[in-house]
Amino acid sequence: MILEIADIRIHPGQQEAFEAAIQKGLTTVIAQAQGYLASRVEHCVESPERYVLQIEWATLEDHTVHFRGGPLFTAWRAIVGPFFAAPPLVEHFNRVV
């Protein structure tokens, strides 16, 4: 299992609309992706324009090749991309403990 963590910064004042959009994107697009296992979104208390998206994938390639290289990525970015103040910082992790 691979954990994708995306550090997202959105435009000020767009929290409510972004939260609705990311929920829609996760349930209608990401959930269809090959190797998708689970996801969650956290909202930063100190920085209200910051969110952390965590997605569990079966393999790294399920995210980097199959999802990002296919039409679902375009659909995902059409839903959430307009809210981004900057490109998200995305990294992948292996569970240690």
UniProtKB/TrEMBL annotation:
Keyword ATP-binding: no
Record keyword Oxidoreductase present: yes
Entry's Gene Ontology molecular function annotations: monooxygenase activity
Keywords: Monooxygenase, Oxidoreductase
InterPro entries from the UniProt entry: ABM_dom, Dimeric_a/b-barrel
Entries under Gene3D superfamilies matching the protein: 3.30.70.100
Domain of life per record: Bacteria
Residue ranges of domain ABM in the record: 2-93
Protein name, UniProt field: Antibiotic biosynthesis monooxygenase
